[in-house]
């Protein structure tokens, strides 16, 4: 299996994350994914065939995307194309992230897989305010796969993030559940999402609305693997 993408990205993870001071780390609520965990996460996907469209809504330096592409390269005969969409707001990470994306697309193309990427230097939640659609509206769906290490912060009731997600009909108290919820908006039917979340990400009264909508629209296969399906669960 080709490993150079994730290994080189992991060096950048250590190097560039160390440049953030503690205040900035707390402000972002972002913890970059080490290579072994990134590889474990991509191993949770069930179907990687045909035309792939990936979204990584909090990309950092590209650890998860690099690991995902490595897995595609290991089964390149089954993949026809790969389009990668990433979001990142921290300026320090943009240059290594862009290089990671270029390297990923080059490696895919060298295997005969059509590849391209789109890098948004903006907050994923802010970007979704442009959609302004009800939860899980089909007109917003376009990704076959999603991989997420979301931000780990509570949402301030007076913040712009709270205003945006409330306008979209999303009621939750933490950014990580908001990231998962908004990503679900962007999946095709039978798409897959693999996410790192706390065990309590949908427990208790605070997450009742999130839990109900999530289980109506998703099939929870394993932790942390969520498989998109439009089968409803009874008794919710």
From TrEMBL:
Instruction: State a single Pfam family of this protein.
Output: Eco57I
Asked if the Swiss-Prot or TrEMBL record annotates the protein with the keyword Nucleotide-binding, the reply is no
Q: Which GO terms describe its biological process?
A: DNA modification; methylation
What name appears for this protein in its UniProt entry? Answer: Site-specific DNA-methyltransferase
* This protein's UniProt keywords: Methyltransferase, Transferase
Which GO MF term does the entry hold, naming one? site-specific DNA-methyltransferase (adenine-specific) activity
Q: Which residues form the Type II methyltransferase M.TaqI-like domain?
A: 122-230
Q: In which domain of life is the source organism classified?
A: Bacteria
């Amino acid at each position: 299996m080709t490993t150079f993408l994730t290994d080189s990205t992991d060096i950048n993870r250590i190097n560039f994350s160390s440049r953030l001071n503690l205040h900035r780390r707390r402000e972002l609520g972002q913890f970059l994914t080490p290579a072994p965990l990134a590889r474990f996460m991509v191993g949770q996907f069930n179907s990687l065939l045909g035309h792939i469209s990936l979204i990584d809504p909090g990309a950092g330096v590209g650890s998860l995307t690099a690991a995902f592409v490595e897995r595609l390269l290991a089964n390149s005969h089954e993949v026809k194309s790969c389009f990668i969409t990433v979001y990142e707001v921290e300026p320090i990470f943009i240059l290594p992230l862009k290089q990671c994306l270029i390297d990923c697309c080059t490696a895919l193309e060298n295997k005969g897989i059509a590849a391209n990427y789109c890098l948004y230097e903006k907050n994923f939640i802010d970007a979704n305010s442009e959609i302004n659609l009800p939860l899980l509206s089909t007109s917003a769906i376009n990704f076959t796969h999603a991989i997420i290490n979301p931000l780990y912060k509570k949402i301030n009731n007076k913040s712009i993030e709270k205003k945006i997600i409330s306008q979209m009909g999303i009621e939750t108290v933490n950014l990580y559940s908001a990231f998962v919820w908004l990503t679900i908006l962007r999946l095709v039917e039978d798409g897959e999402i693999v996410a790192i979340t706390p065990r309590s990400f949908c427990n208790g009264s605070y997450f009742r609305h999130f839990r109900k909508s999530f289980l109506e629209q998703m099939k929870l296969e394993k932790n942390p693997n969520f498989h998109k399906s439009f089968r409803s669960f009874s008794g919710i």
